[in-house]
Design brief:
Blueprint: E1 2-4, H1 5-8, E2 12-15, E3 18-29, E4 34-41, E5 50-53, E6 67-69, H2 74-78, H3 91-101, E7 112-113, E8 116-117, H4 131-143, E9 151-153, H5 154-157, E10 161-164, E11 167-178, E12 184-190, E13 199-202, E14 207-211, E15 216-219, H6 223-227, H7 240-250
Parallel strand pairs: 2-6, 10-15
Antiparallel strand pairs: 1-11, 2-3, 3-4, 3-9, 4-5, 7-8, 10-11, 11-12, 12-13, 14-15
Length: 260
């Protein structure tokens, strides 16, 4: 099932013993185009504090109640490491969070669920699993000096211009997410400044780099290719037939979300 990021924002996150807060943003890896963290605004419960949760802890969404259940307690969340979500989230901070909860990090080895490492079905708190593990992970992080540079906010990227190989065609309006692997399957692009009345989808497979300085998402296709692509209607579900036609049009031989 695909869902828009804007629709999920505002969903309540319910721990096993009470509400935690509401979804306020998503942090995604701009290389793999997968959501790595959900940003949860704890509101009045932990005034002024936001926490990060990986999608692996989420249960199935309740669209009527606009709620996600999570396999955590409110105490676990309250005692989790503080994160300043107004600043770039470093690999070191990610390591601290994974250590605190006793989870295997998504960049490590081991079992995976939805692209994320998983340790222990009970999800019990295991504060800081030991200096040797932290040291090893911090060394690995240091060897990937630019790793921290690829974790980005969907809220921040909303509004970025879409730049085809021969010019600007519109701007990012939303993101279509796969709720199984939490990949960004499509960017929803508003083209009204180039040609009126049309929204289109762009797959990350057609995207090149993201120019953060100039607020651009660069594409590897030209404007005409995007203009002639299937129109997107937000009131209509993106079903198998649409995706098959979309992949055929762009020459994608597999689903946009099947990226490492």
């Amino acid at each position: 099932m695909l869902c828009t990021a804007s629709t999920i924002k505002g969903y309540t996150i319910a721990a096993s013993d009470g509400p935690i807060g509401t979804v306020s943003d998503f942090l995604f890896d701009d290389k793999s185009w997968r959501v790595r963290w959900m940003v949860v605004d704890t509101g009045k419960w932990l005034t002024g504090r936001k926490v990060l949760l990986p999608p692996l802890v989420l249960g199935n969404p309740d669209s009527l109640a606009r709620e996600f259940s999570v396999r955590l307690t409110t105490r676990q969340v309250k005692d989790s490491p503080d994160v300043d979500t107004d600043r770039p989230v470093s690999r070191q901070m990610e390591t601290h969070i994974y250590d605190y909860y006793g989870w295997g990090p998504y960049w490590g080895d081991g079992m995976y669920m939805g692209g994320y490492g998983f340790v222990g079905a009970a999800m019990a708190p295991a504060p800081y699993l030991g200096s040797r593990r932290r040291e090893a992970e911090e060394i690995a992080a240091a060897q990937e000096i630019d790793a921290d540079l690829h974790l980005r906010s969907t809220e921040a990227v909303t509004g970025y211009h879409i730049h085809a190989s021969d010019g600007v065609i519109g701007h990012v309006e939303d993101f279509l997410l796969g709720d199984i692997d939490w990949s960004i399957r499509y960017l929803v692009v508003d083209t009204k400044n180039w040609w009126p009345g049309k929204h289109v989808l762009v797959s990350p497979r057609s995207a090149g780099d993201i120019d953060w300085r100039h607020r651009l998402v660069n594409l590897k296709v030209d404007r005409q290719k995007v203009k002639d692509s299937p129109a997107y209607d937000a009131s209509t579900a993106v079903d198998r037939a649409f995706e098959d036609g979309f992949r055929k049009y762009y020459g994608h031989d597999s689903q946009p979300g099947n990226q490492a």
